[in-house]
């Protein structure tokens, strides 16, 4: 009996040992799989984040939310605007607007332009995101799930828009609406000054 008992114990001991070995091997394999998937997801997320990083507004006609535009106001006056996106600085917006005014002047065959009015507007948009809350069971006369609000986050997005009211003209004299003009620029000098800073869509790497 003692021998059989010892034999039985030995058999019982060897059984779990095999099971534990298989279980450990299984968890090792699963750990490798999970680690590999996590690494893949992490790398993919970083690549997508790098590709989706916002860039300052390019110098181009306004197509959707940013870019330059101009309109004729009559009597030789034009309103030139440049709208930047959320990562475009106020200084860049103003420089791009002034550069566009100079380009517009040269395209009409004029040499200089007078500024009658200028303004830079700031727009701030606050976005709040709310997430589904968690909850806990409530037991009373009737059992139900009592949720509570989830966490919330907010973010601010600030953009700038520069506006110039200009009057292109040529010659050594003063513009026709000289009574309201307070600043005069040489169009070609402005283009030469800011041309190295201008980034157009075709300048972007493919």
Description:
This protein has about 210 residues and is an alpha+beta fold. The chain contains three helices and seven strands. It has helices at about 1-50, 90-105, 185-195; strands spanning about 65-75, 75-85, 110-130, 135-140, 145, 150-170, 185. The strands form two sheets. It has a five-stranded antiparallel beta sheet with strand order 1-2-6-3-7. Strand 1 (about 65-75) and strand 2 form a beta hairpin. The protein is elongated and about 90 Å long. Residues about 1-20 and about 40-50 have low confidence and may be disordered.
Radius of gyration: 34 Å
Question: What composes the largest sheet?
Answer: 5 strands, antiparallel
The span between the termini is: 84 Å
Q: How do the strands line up in the largest sheet?
A: 1-2-6-3-7
Keyphrases for this structure?
elongated; five-stranded antiparallel sheet; alpha+beta; 3 helices; 206 residues
Itemize the secondary structure elements and their pairings:
Elements: H1 2-51, E1 67-74, E2 77-83, H2 90-107, E3 112-130, E4 135-138, E5 144-147, E6 152-169, E7 183-186, H3 187-194
Helix pairs in contact: 2-3
What's the short story on this structure?
This protein is of the alpha+beta class and 206 residues long. The chain has helices spanning 2-51, 90-107, 187-194; strands at 67-74, 77-83, 112-130, 135-138, 144-147, 152-169, 183-186. It is 37% helix and 31% strand.
């Amino acid at each position: 009996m003692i021998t059989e008992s010892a034999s039985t114990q030995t058999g019982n001991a060897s059984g779990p040992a095999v099971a534990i070995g298989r279980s450990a091997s299984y968890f090792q394999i699963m750990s490798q799989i999970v680690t590999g998937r996590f690494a893949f997801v992490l790398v993919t997320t970083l690549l997508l984040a790098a590709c989706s990083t916002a860039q300052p507004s390019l110098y181009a006609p306004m197509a959707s939310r940013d870019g330059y535009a101009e309109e004729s106001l009559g009597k030789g006056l034009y309103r030139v605007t440049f709208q930047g996106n959320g990562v475009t600085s106020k200084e860049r917006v103003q420089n791009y607007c002034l550069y566009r005014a100079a380009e517009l002047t040269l395209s009409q065959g004029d040499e200089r332009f007078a500024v009658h009015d200028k303004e830079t507007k700031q727009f701030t948009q606050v976005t709040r995101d709310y997430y589904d809350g968690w909850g806990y069971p409530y037991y009373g006369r009737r059992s139900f799930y009592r949720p509570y609000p989830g966490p919330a986050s907010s973010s601010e997005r600030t953009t700038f828009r520069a506006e110039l009211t200009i009057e292109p003209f040529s010659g050594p004299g003063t513009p026709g609406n000289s009574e309201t003009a307070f600043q005069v620029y040489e169009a070609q000098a402005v283009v030469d000054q800011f041309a190295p800073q201008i980034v157009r869509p075709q300048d972007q790497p493919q």
